């Protein structure tokens, strides 16, 4: 065989090996990431998750009370009475909490403006109700929430317009 043909034959063999190697890589990737394989694995994971959920569903015939109670969070554990992070419900709860804190801050600001340089501003519920007209229907709820966060103090559990107008409200912050 002449030298010229050997070089051409060698180059052709190298190109063929390279293309075959590329084809093998593509086939391997296709097998690993094939749509059918992906669907099968997703279906399998859904099926196993569904089986667990049915054990936790009290309206299903596969409900397992002991298993359900073993997974239940107990008071004091991390995540008890909290929404799962990243869910829409958790986002709504966070926005609602921010809104309440803004409302409490607004109420404390109104009380401070009424204070006229008092050390511990004190007012009656009637005075505050008349002054805080912007959202007067929410005054009681915001006052109770502010008391929970130790921003204000007052006597009693609930304040009613008319009968509790003389109750003294003290700003603590």
UniProtKB/TrEMBL annotation:
It comes from the Eukaryota. Keywords: Actin-binding, Activator, Cytoplasm, Cytoskeleton, Phosphoprotein, Protein transport, Transcription, Transcription regulation, Translocation, Transport. One of its GO terms (biological process) is protein transport. GO terms for cellular component: cytoskeleton; sarcomere. Residues 98-172 form the Costars domain. It is found in: Cytoplasm, Cytoskeleton; Cytoplasm, Myofibril, Sarcomere. GO terms for molecular function: actin binding. Binds F-actin and ABLIM1, ABLIM2 and ABLIM3. Interaction with ABLIM2 and ABLIM3 enhances activity. Acts as an activator of serum response factor (SRF)-dependent transcription possibly by inducing nuclear translocation of MKL1 or MKL2 and through a mechanism requiring Rho-actin signaling. This is Actin-binding Rho-activating protein. It comes from Cottoperca gobio. The gene is abrab.
């Amino acid at each position: 065989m002449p030298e010229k043909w050997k070089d051409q034959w060698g180059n052709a063999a190298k190109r063929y090996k390279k293309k075959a190697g590329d084809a093998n890589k593509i086939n391997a990737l296709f097998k690993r990431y094939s749509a059918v394989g992906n669907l099968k694995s997703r279906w399998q994971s859904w099926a196993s998750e569904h089986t667990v959920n049915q054990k936790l569903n009290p309206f299903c015939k596969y409900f397992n009370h002991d298993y359900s109670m073993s997974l239940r969070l107990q008071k004091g554990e991390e995540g008890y009475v909290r929404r799962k992070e990243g869910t829409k419900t958790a986002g709504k709860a966070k926005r609602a909490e921010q809104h309440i804190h803004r409302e409490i801050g607004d109420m404390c600001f109104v009380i401070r403006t009424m204070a006229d340089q008092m050390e511990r501003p004190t007012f009656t519920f009637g005075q505050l109700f008349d002054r805080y007209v912007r959202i007067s229907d929410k005054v009681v709820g915001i006052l109770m929430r502010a008391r929970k966060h130790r921003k204000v103090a007052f006597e009693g559990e609930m304040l009613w317009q008319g009968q509790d107008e003389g109750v003294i409200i003290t700003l603590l912050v």
